[in-house]
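Duplicate of #3305? Posting structure anyway:
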């Protein structure tokens, strides 16, 4: 018997659950990250009853933050910026969060080029003039504009798939002489282990027309004057908690979902409902809903609570992904207002090989530096921590300082570390060519289940919100009529 079946047998063999432990709703949302939170707010705006089941103690997923105990200031631990788009403005206004031009210290700021492997400063990097870099970015933009429809989602991908989208991105770069653009492009591909061998389709979606235009025009936005992105989700939680039509279950998990409809025992209701057995800090809950929205990555190990159909299993098993770590380092010996980028002199486009630390970037708060690490999915956190500590010691020696292991240096402390895996969920080019995404998007609405999140769109808040708004909610709302 599967774990899902066991959960239901234990729950349903006894008397009908205490009414206080049963929650009725129109839509149950699995995951309270970027897409799940957005969907909950919008469905609530449409007058629907929603329940959000989130395993963390907060909403927002990758938009986490850290509070510095010394200053009391909050620092981003993930998402930092947003594109200047109407939907973004509308959503922030709904949540009472202002938008300001991006000013916070971040991974796109000026930094010293240093080869973290050799410990040597990289003279003459990047080797291209600003004019050449901008010209190459504009050429990339011209190519991306051919596929602007991809911003709508994989639903818009034509068949046969345009050959350029199936090329390894490294081949695409050479074909259109985009080498100078790689100086900028690689700064936006953190967490992707093998950028040059990834199908170009994913790069065009990640660095789409809107994003590249924002790079060229310097129009990225941040959440309010502080730039702390988690404020968006703090306000969303407050809004949902205050709404009689929304329930947010934090630190909670779905342990079993039965998508075979059952008849409601609620007085006056005969609508067929799905059943979700949920573990919460206050005990077990039974959620009865008319529709299900899954926002966690569609990977089989991520969905143990869901009895997947053979079609779902076949598609989800094709996905692969990388791991991406974001953290904060405290070190009083490093010079504030200074950042360092890992520039691998002997690698194509000076991109360090995975697993690697991308750089150390001052946050603008005290002695805190932002650190990002790209790794294969099998790399353990202990190895990631060792990589970070080694990178900091390399930086110190390059600056003529004592390193920690010299016995005289100022101690380095990793005060926060988050794993953003699964990250950049993709399939091989041959799967794309064979119609994978036509089959994947056809799952929307089957068994009263809808799907959203980065795997269905891309690793970008604005894009995920747009996909949810335009591709998911219309069908879901139609179902609920």
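Output from current build:
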């Amino acid at each position: 018997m599967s774990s899902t079946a066991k959960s239901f047998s234990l729950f349903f063999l006894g008397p009908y659950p205490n009414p206080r432990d049963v929650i009725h709703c129109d839509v149950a949302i699995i995951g309270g990250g970027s897409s799940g939170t957005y969907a909950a707010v919008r469905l609530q705006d449409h007058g629907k009853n929603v329940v959000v089941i989130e395993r963390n103690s907060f909403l927002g997923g990758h938009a986490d933050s850290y509070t510095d105990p010394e200053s009391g200031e909050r620092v981003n631990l993930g998402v930092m910026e947003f594109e200047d788009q109407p939907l973004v403005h509308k959503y922030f206004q709904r949540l009472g969060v202002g938008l300001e031009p991006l000013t916070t210290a971040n991974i796109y700021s000026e930094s010293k080029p240093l080869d973290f492997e050799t410990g040597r400063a990289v003279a003459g990097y990047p080797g291209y003039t600003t004019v050449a870099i901008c010209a190459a970015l504009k050429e990339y933009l011209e190519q991306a504009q051919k596929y602007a429809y991809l911003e709508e989602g994989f639903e818009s991908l034509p068949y046969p798939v345009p050959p350029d989208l199936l090329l390894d991105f490294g081949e695409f770069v050479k074909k259109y002489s985009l080498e100078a653009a790689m100086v900028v492009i690689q700064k936006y591909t953190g967490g992707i282990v093998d950028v040059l061998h990834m199908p170009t389709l994913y790069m065009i979606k990640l660095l789409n027309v809107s994003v590249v235009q924002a790079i060229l025009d310097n129009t990225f936005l941040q959440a309010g004057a502080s730039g702390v992105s988690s404020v968006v989700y703090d306000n969303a939680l407050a809004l949902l908690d205050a709404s009689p039509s929304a329930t947010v279950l934090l630190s909670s998990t779905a342990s079993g979902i039965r998508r075979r409809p059952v008849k409601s025992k609620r007085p006056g209701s005969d609508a067929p409902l799905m059943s979700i057995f949920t573990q919460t800090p206050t005990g077990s809950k039974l959620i009865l809903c008319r529709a299900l929205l899954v926002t966690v990555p569609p990977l089989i190990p991520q969905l143990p609570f869901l009895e997947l159909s053979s079609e779902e299993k076949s598609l989800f098993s094709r996905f692969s992904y990388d791991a991406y770590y974001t953290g904060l380092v405290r070190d009083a010996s490093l010079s504030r207002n200074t950042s360092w980028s890992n520039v691998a002199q002997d690698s194509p486009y000076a991109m360090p090989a995975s697993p690697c630390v991308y750089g150390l970037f001052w946050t603008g708060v005290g002695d805190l530096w932002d650190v990002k690490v790209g790794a294969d999915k099998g790399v353990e956190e202990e190895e990631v921590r060792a990589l970070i500590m080694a990178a900091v010691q390399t930086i110190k020696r390059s600056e003529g300082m004592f390193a920690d292991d010299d016995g005289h240096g100022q101690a380095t402390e990793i005060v926060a570390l988050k794993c953003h895996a699964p990250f950049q969920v993709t399939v091989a080019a041959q799967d794309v060519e064979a119609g994978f995404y036509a089959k994947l998007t056809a799952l929307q609405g089957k068994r009263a289940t809808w799907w959203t999140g980065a795997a269905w769109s891309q690793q970008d808040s604005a894009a995920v919100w747009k996909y949810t708004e335009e591709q998911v909610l219309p069908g879901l709302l139609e179902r609920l009529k």
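Confirmed duplicate; merging threads. The chain is about 30% helix and 25% strand. The CA atoms of residues 82 and 388 lie 27 Å apart.
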